[in-house]
Amino acid sequence: MFYEDVRLERELNFVRKIGRLSEHDMHVHDALEVSILLKNDAKYRLIGRDYHGKPGDVFVFRPFEPHYNLVQDTEKPVHWIMLLFSPSIVRSIPEGGKLLRPFYTAASRFSPLIPAHSPYAIAIHDAARQAVLEEENRLPGWQAKQFQAFIDIVVHLYRYYLELDRDAHIDRSTDEGVLRVIEYVLSHFSEDIAIDRLVAMAQMRKTMFYTKFKEMTSLSPNEFISRLRLQSAVYLLDYSDKSVTDIAFECGFHSLSYFNKQFKQFKGLSPREHRNRMKLAGPPGT
């Protein structure tokens, strides 16, 4: 079994998908993912468990969580909308860090499946379809409308999992400290962040903090901060005319040479090479 590391070129991606495979290797996204099943049954596989998906179902995948979806019947291809987004996008949403709690709560605490009969799944389907139509039609203001649909989706996800917690009387006190830290980092990743301050914020011993943080994110705190900065830098390189130096400092890097080194490790090419390649490829959808 091998995991493919799929990285985003945009902070927010709504894509109509059709799947016909009955066998496939697991993959892992350097992103957050929501799968909105539209037509025909699918098998969703995570580590240690399979789920039978039906049209109307919604599946939520934690970052760095290996998974795939396959057809149940090879004669009936699966149709779904895949929402992929960078966690750094919530910096522009009031209290956006809170909305990502479902993606960073320990996997053993909830099922990734939101069943079709749930009013939350119905609302998420409506918003996802609208987001895709906005991008396909590209009427004036379509990106703003799509972003509104995205906010609707993450709000519905957050409310759904809050309701699950209340109904199950789940005590998340052991996770609260790390979740507070994640919310803070999502909103302040471009600033100077002292790890000792994060440890104090979590109200844990340092060793326990590092262990719990890695359980939730699959990264160390420093790796998590660096990843958010790099994802933000990719977006600015693609969608702004700011200089590489300005982008490096805006995203929280204090050295251009260090930024170049980290970016090349992340993307396999320098920031300038990445920007030139994207210019040659043209805007998305062209």
From TrEMBL:
Keywords: Activator, Cytoplasm, DNA-binding, Transcription, Transcription regulation
The keyword Transmembrane helix is annotated on this UniProt entry: no
Gene3D superfamilies on file: Homeodomain-like (1.10.10.60), Jelly Rolls (2.60.120.10)
InterPro entries (UniProt xref): AraC-bd (IPR003313), AraC_XylS_family_regulators (IPR050204), Homeodomain-like_sf (IPR009057), HTH-like (IPR037923), HTH_AraC (IPR018060), HTH_AraC-typ_CS (IPR018062), RmlC-like_jellyroll (IPR014710), Tscrpt_reg_AraC-type_HTH (IPR020449)
Entry's Gene Ontology molecular function annotations: DNA-binding transcription factor activity; sequence-specific DNA binding
Domain HTH araC/xylS-type: 179-277
Superkingdom of the organism of origin: Bacteria
Name of the molecule in the record: Helix-turn-helix transcriptional regulator
Species, as recorded: Paenibacillus oceani
